[in-house]
Amino acid sequence: MSDLPTRRTRRRAAIDLRAPEPVPEVVARRPRDRSTPASERTRVMGILNVTPDSFSDGGLHLGIDAALTHARDLVATGADIVDVGGESTRPGAERVPVAVEQERVLPVVRQLVAEGIAVSVDTMNAATAERAVELGAAIVNDVSGGLADPDMARVVASTGTGFVVMHWRGHSDRMYRDAVYEHAVDEVRREVEMRVAELIVLGVRQEQVVIDPGLGFAKQGVQNWEILAGYERFASIGLPVLVAASRKRFLDGVGSPAGAPPAERDLATAAISLLAAERGAWGVRVHDPAPTRAVLDVWEAWRAARS
């Protein structure tokens, strides 16, 4: 695809997040030998950090050429969507000026869309989200669920883009101070549900929303495992669910040696991707799509043989 999508095309792709072909049409053009209908497949969102300081791969893909090369590798190894972010949200990270974020992100979004790759923009800034959607991004992935920028709801509502609403209790420099729960699953579920309700009042349509329980954000150690074990409580909200566990600190020592580099957590990440898919997750967000794609393909083949 050489032309950028029209506003009408972008609106249809966003609205179709929950329809029989939820992933934007450009994804369907990459051939897959599968019998599972697209509407039943868990989407793999590949992480592209165009940042110098992300916890796992900061600085590796900061230049546009490096970013584009990595994005193509993500797609080649199994990503359905490339999630492009220009601001680190690792614990303790400082905010990045909007102009810097856009300088990192927008040229990458423009080129990936021109190549027919489905793009999500990982941003808390409404201005960046709006520019990215104008360039053809089909999804806005906001770790604050629209709380960091009060204009985000207007942008999402007016553009019709898909919107990942994550559970959030504050910016990275303070989020662990807010990791206090009596019943983590119930409290997080309630806060997510309330935030979605607020967004709907502000004009965002329910059909645009995917929810993310926010693993690692204002959650410590075992609280993340409680959230995963309570997946069905989030699914019962009735909205698509994104699971974003990739390489996060709570996986340290689970399936790999304690203290090993974050990249060695990819097998644990793939195991969580499989468990999430079995429970009907809309998508999983991962740094390395290959192991996740492999386990999901095996599971889909197994499931197809039983039908």
Helix content: 40-55%
Secondary-structure element order, N to C: HHEHEHEHEHEHEHHEHEH
Shape: globular
Structural class: alpha/beta
Low-confidence stretches: 1-16, 18-35
Strand order of the largest sheet: 6-5-4-3-2-1-8-7
Radius of gyration: 18 Å
Let me know the average pLDDT.
86
How many helical elements? Answer: 11
Number of strands: 8
Largest sheet: 8 strands, parallel
Percentage of residues in strands = 5-15%
**Intertermini distance:** 36 Å
What does this structure look like?
The protein has 307 residues and is of the alpha/beta class. 40% of the residues lie in helices and 11% in strands. The protein is built from eleven helices and eight strands. Strands 6-5-4-3-2-1-8-7 form an eight-stranded parallel beta sheet. Strand 5 (162-166), helix 7 (184-201) and strand 6 form a beta-alpha-beta unit. Helix 3 packs across helix 4, helix 5 packs parallel to helix 6 and helix 10 packs parallel to helix 11. The longest helix has 18 residues, at 184-201. The protein is globular and about 45 Å long. It starts with 6 loop residues before the first helix and ends with a helix.
Summarize the structure.
This protein is α/β, with parallel strands linked by helices.
Q: Which descriptors would you attach to this protein?
A:
alpha/beta, 8-stranded parallel sheet, 40% helix
Which helices and strands appear, and what pairs or packs with what?
Blueprint: H1 7-15, H2 25-28, E1 43-49, H3 64-76, E2 81-85, H4 98-114, E3 119-122, H5 126-135, E4 139-142, H6 152-159, E5 162-166, H7 184-201, E6 209-212, H8 222-229, H9 231-235, E7 242-243, H10 266-278, E8 283-286, H11 289-306
Helix pairs in contact: 3-4, 4-5, 5-6, 10-11
